[in-house]
């Protein structure tokens, strides 16, 4: 992407145009695993957003230093370092938050979406665009997870964020892993339909990675 | 060759130093916080205790050492508490288990674990942990399917359920080995009277 693309457009790209879950179809495994509830999805989204932004910034700063032949181990190591630092600092100074989020943080090292943003964007762009791309992609991932969480928790448990709304559980399968794929597929198709119908887009262009 | 390797080595070394420094900075703070949390949790496990809860001994399982405690009120035992852990799906699930003087489970509290969010972390739910309340050692068996007598596994989280159940059973067994004789003696006395 060239320098003249406005930062606002770049930010929106992560949320709509190249939404990590619904468009790029990356990191579907955690997206299915944690979205059995809104709260889980939200916490995971926040953690990913943070790590992705940090990794993007670091990779962008070191982009001329890292030899392309060994870029993948470098990126993975940068991600792992950030994840470890965040985990340690949080567990010491933010006990209450850590109790809720600690489970998610360590998983992030292996997320495809983080590696892919480092590879496809941060390694070729300057600091500021990389930062914006990280935040935008993070928000896109967060929104996708929350959307899936709302859909699945409401249908599967009849509750939202742990608060019971319906007295019954309309579709128990939705909180099971299989229901996660159903929900994701339905939502992906639905968003593509909206895109084609109202915005003249072409829908998701690429398949899963 | 060096051109490729050197930057990688530099990144690894710098990252290693950063991680080590963070650990050094945060470890004492975390250690203190965990100690305080444990003290508070112990109090919660034995709300009737009036005397300070002190370690009464240790036991070992799978190369790990756990402490157990005797909680008293005016010198009389009101609860026996033990640390324990069970191997779940992706982590050791660390717990505190408290028994009443009748050697039945009073409470189970998960202190630390790293199970899969959305699946394994359901073992934290009250509906699962409450199953242990009032159970004796022989009843603490994991069952896949409906049960009132034993412990019902959470569907989709069998390994995690098993970890908790095994951990609780080990703790109950240890506490019974150490304090159960008194209960049996008291029961025997009750019979003869």
Features of the shown structure:
heterodimer; A: 209 residues; mainly alpha; two-stranded antiparallel ribbon; 8 helices; 67% helix; globular; B: 193 residues; alpha+beta; five-stranded antiparallel β-sheet; 7 strands; 43% helix; 26% strand
**What would the principal axes of the Cα set say about the shape of chain A?**
globular
Roughly how much helix do the residues of chain A carry, as a percent range? 55-70%
Biggest sheet details of chain A: 2 strands, antiparallel
Low-pLDDT ranges of chain A:
none
Structural class of chain A: mainly alpha
Low-confidence stretches of chain B: none
The CA-CA distance between the termini of chain A, in Å, is 21 Å
Overall structural domain count of chain B: 2
Give the ordered list of helices and strands of chain B.
Answer: HEEEEEHEEH
- Describe the biggest sheet of chain B? 5 strands, antiparallel
Described by the principal axes of the CA atoms, the overall outline of chain B is: globular
Residues in β-strands, percent of chain A: under 5%
What does this structure look like?
The complex is a heterodimer of chains A (209) and B (193). Chain A is mainly alpha-helical and 209 residues long. With 193 residues, chain B is an alpha+beta fold. Chain B folds into two domains: 43 residues; 142 residues, no CATH class. In chain B, 43% of the residues lie in helices and 26% in strands. In chain B, the strands form two sheets. In chain B, strands 1-2-3-4-5 form a five-stranded antiparallel β-sheet. In chain B, strands 6-7 form a two-stranded parallel sheet. In chain B, a hairpin with a 5-residue loop joins strand 4 and strand 5. The mean pLDDT of chain B is 87.
